[in-house]
Amino acid sequence: MSPVIPLMPERVEGSGLPVLKQRGQREVFCGLTGIVWLHRKIQDAFFLVVGSRTCAHLVQSAAGVMIFAEPRFATAIIDERDLAGLADANTELDRVVTRLLERRPDIKLLFLVGSCPSEVIKLDLSRAAARLSQRFTPQVRILNYSGSGIETTFTQGEDACLASLVPQLPSTPARSLMVVGALADVVEDQFRRLFDELGIGPVHFLPPRRSTELPPVGPETRLLMAQPFLGDTLRALEARGARRLAAPFPLGAEGTTEWLRAAWVDWCAVGGESAAQVTRFASVVGPKRERAARSLARHRVALQGRRVFFFPDSQLEVPLARFLARELGMTLVEVGSPYLHRTLLDRELALLPPGTQLSEGQDVDRQLDRCRAARPDIVVCGLGLANPLEAEGMTTKWSIELVFSPIHGFEQAADLAELFTRPLDRRARLVA
Amino acid sequence: MQLTLWTYEGPPHIGAMRIATGMRDVHYVLHAPQGDTYADLLFTMIERRNHRPPVTYTTFQARDLGGDTAELFKTAAREAYERFKPQAMLVGASCTAELIQDDPGGLALALDLPIPVVPLELPAYQRKENWGAAETFYRLVRTMCPAPATARAPRLPGTPARCNVLGPTALGFRHRDDVREITQLLVKIGVEINVVAPLNASPSDLSRLADADFNVVLYPEIANTAATWLTRSHGQPVTRTVPIGVGATREFIAEVCALAGLDAELALRNAEARATWYSRSVDSTYLTGKRVFVFGDASHAVAAARVASRELGFQIVGLGTYSREQAREVREAAALYGVEPLITDDYLEVEAQVAALQPELVLGTQMERHIAKRLGVPCAVISAPVHVQDFPARYSPQMGFEGANVLFDTWVHPLMMGLEEHLLHMFRDDFEFHEGAAASHLGRAPGPAAAVTEVAAPVQLAVVAATHATHAPQVPSGPIVASWAPEAERELSKIPFFVRGKARRNTERFAVEKGMATITVETLYDAKAHFGR
């Protein structure tokens, strides 16, 4: 063993929070996993992974694909002939795409998704996408991004996907608000109603539900980030002139309020709203916030003072930890994240309790040692670790459910808290 | 490049993981990019293992590719040894690491660890999971139990014969329970068990393999390579019969007795399963000639076809496998039943075949279960790839006599459910049983449909909280057909639902062939006579 013990603990600039960085085995998904929710969100899109049998196996294992009649994702499996140069990989890819699009005339947008093997053999999917686009336009738009594990971690797959959509967005000189990041449809509709009541509009969502409804972007577009893992998408949107509104993320009553407030303040400032209208925020948002807070009360009783340990997974860890600490009174033992995006998390880090131990990246074995030593009341971790830790007597929450369930917004605040109370409740109920 | 919507087998390193995870005191150091760790959840979630698989992944990233990924591997291997102190270490590469050609075997040997290190060459772009498992097991066996310099001394007279039981792994289809069933059986007939491997064996157990007189191969896909080598280098003969079904189990017992020098007749006395009688009992008459489609790994598919045909009186209308390595066995079996073998790993092809054959029961994998569900055909699962449902809490072997009982129950059950549904349909319009009638046990409770029954729709348990399918299967609309007269349509509705679709198709085909524009009740019965089987 060669434990690296830093002499001076590293700290996140600005917030001053200590951050532990270790390099070892990272027990995380790759970006291909994002296909599982992205294909449900963009309903006329198909995701074709260009990769190995491992990629196909990963996606079907992560998605429990067995339930799909004919899923809107597939893998073009690279075989020996492609590697040996016996077959021109580009010709092969064209053949596969043609066969696929013939089968599925309902598809309007095709993503060629790069993988570890396609990156390593340097198969140029952007050129392939351009070539195939020409051939299938205007019926099908063909784009590419990489979901490879060597470049992306889990939710970064969504970042890469959305970033690839940005150049396709129509331009607009008009003032508008864009909510960035895939949300459950029900959550999107709730937010849309709130923005309507606040008089903020037009509001667009990226990604859209259909590829034919791409949101417009321009210098007067304000960006409200719904997810903390969209750094590349943000950069691409900023390059189109849009500007991000700094805010915490809409998790919990407080996070949602502050997130909406950021949009409201900006909208009033530019629109020159009168003082009377400013009270509108309180009258629209206030009752919803109170209702959410009421629904959290029961969970606060169950979670107050309980100690939580986060293994890195989705980059949602910091906003989740902020919610658990501030709204439910939990104690944060360690907040691990695959990557701490300093800019996107600026408002979040400021809200964390002083001295919160962060960790970035992972050495899973050493992190498990820390976790066992700390004996937290609940561990948030991936599916590979959950049952083994339960067997050791720890209570766990599978982190992937935090990505697949609707957790954003006022109406979901209690559902989010419930995801943490249920494992504790269950352990208390089971006698033997 | 092959377009794949779903795959029956994972890559070969998953096979290696199944060996390592099934064993004790082995550690596998896998050169693999970040993300390949998804494989852990197959074991911890599907199989509900209470330990992490004994696998260390190097999880290299793009920034490492410019640097020294070989050093990363060496560090991972060294630290894994220090932390886990295994008796033996497997080292290898997943698909991406294979491309960067770091030679994990060479690197690990250079570390000079004080334990056996087994390098694995598993070509990820040619081979698949079962092959990877077989190769890994073979390499481990060869390393731990090298060929002896001199031939083994013959067994002393009077000492009981000993055997090894080879093939069961982690994440195997009912391996856990098959091992228990078969070892009990072997002990009962007077054979000593030397080593069961790889499941629950340690590398030191493997070094004792040579102490057995013969080997029992439960899963040829996994154990054949190692067993063949053991025959060649240690002179251990091997069993060939996979004991699935009553007939095969009896044959297996006879085979074992011959190898062990035991009296087969004695061993076979009272060797029966309840399933044999159940199959003969009169209420099983309706099973006669049920048209069955069988698909799975080669061993399970061949065994299932035999049980279906000889022990349940079904008719095999299709037989296939996704294991190309064992295609020959399936071809031979298919010839036995006079059907075309289907050798493919493309589930769309399997689906087309099932749709064309219109079987009354499908015996397949989890994927065939979904195909059957879409087509409205009853189905039972007989083979890997595994699903969380394939690890029931109860004892549920496939092999031996108890296994035969399990097969009877699990295969006949979906047909019974279908029958119940048919009765419901038949009495649908009965005055006491119509959809609007309340259940009698609810007294005068008003309300809608009481005639609700648990339809054979197995619970979908995706590994993760999966989203819902909205994409309906695309049923190709055929050419314009003759139209149905109302009274013919009414008559058709009286035909049991599980043959109604076929009756409709046959009648329409008949009408088209005869150039009829309208289908009457007479046309229906003319067609029935014409196609009558």
Strand order of the largest sheet of chain B: 11-10-9-12-13
Please give the CATH class of the largest domain in chain A.
Alpha Beta
Biggest interface, and residues per chain? A-B, 78 and 74 residues
- Give the helix level of chain B as a range of percent: 40-55%
How many runs of DSSP E, i.e. beta strands of chain B? 15
The proportion of strand residues of chain B reads 5-15%
- Major β-sheet profile of chain A: 7 strands, mixed
Compose a concise summary of this entry:
The complex is a heterodimer of chains A (432) and B (533). Chain A has helices at 35-41, 53-63, 80-83, 89-103, 116-120, 125-136, 156-165, 185-198, 231-239, 252-271, 275-303, 317-328, 346-351, 364-374, 383-391, 400-404, 413-429, and strands at 10-11, 18-21, 45-51, 73-77, 109-114, 141-146, 176-180, 203-206, 221-225, 243-244, 307-310, 331-337, 358-360, 378-381, 396-398.
Task: Explain what this protein looks like in three dimensions.
The complex is a heterodimer of chains A (432) and B (533). Chain A has 432 residues and is of the alpha/beta class. Chain A folds into three domains: 10-24 and 293-429, Nitrogenase molybdenum iron protein domain (Rossmann fold); 31-152, Rossmann fold (3-Layer(aba) Sandwich); 176-288, Nitrogenase molybdenum iron protein domain (Rossmann fold, 3-Layer(aba) Sandwich), CATH 3.40.50. Chain A has helices at 35-41, 53-63, 80-83, 89-103, 116-120, 125-136, 156-165, 185-198, 231-239, 252-271, 275-303, 317-328, 346-351, 364-374, 383-391, 400-404, 413-429, and strands spanning 10-11, 18-21, 45-51, 73-77, 109-114, 141-146, 176-180, 203-206, 221-225, 243-244, 307-310, 331-337, 358-360, 378-381, 396-398. In chain A, strands 1-2-13-12-11-14-15 form a seven-stranded mixed sheet, sandwiched between helices. Chain A has a four-stranded parallel sheet with strand order 4-3-5-6, sandwiched between helices. A four-stranded parallel sheet of chain A has the order 8-7-9-10, sandwiched between helices. In chain A, helix 2 (53-63) links the parallel strand 3 (45-51) and strand 4. The longest helix of chain A has 29 residues, at 275-303. The two termini of chain A are 39 Å apart. Chain B has 533 residues and is α/β, with parallel strands linked by helices. Chain B folds into four domains: 12-129, Nitrogenase molybdenum iron protein domain (Rossmann fold, 3-Layer(aba) Sandwich), CATH 3.40.50.1980; 162-271, 3-Layer(aba) Sandwich (Rossmann fold); 275-424, Nitrogenase molybdenum iron protein domain (Rossmann fold, 3-Layer(aba) Sandwich), CATH 3.40.50.1980; 483-531, Helicase, Ruva Protein, domain 3 (Orthogonal Bundle), CATH 1.10.8. Helices cover 45% and strands 12% of the residues of chain B. Chain B is built from 21 helices and 15 strands. In chain B, strand 9 (291-296), helix 14 and strand 10 form a beta-alpha-beta unit. In chain B, helix 8 (175-188) crosses helix 18 and helix 14 (298-311) packs parallel to helix 15 (327-337). The relative contact order of chain B is 0.08. The model of chain B is unreliable at 442-478 (pLDDT under 50). At the A-B interface, helix 1, helix 2, strand 4, helix 3 and helix 4 of A face strand 1, helix 2, helix 3, helix 4 and helix 5 of B. Strand 4 (73-77) of chain A pairs antiparallel with strand 1 of chain B, so a sheet runs across the interface.
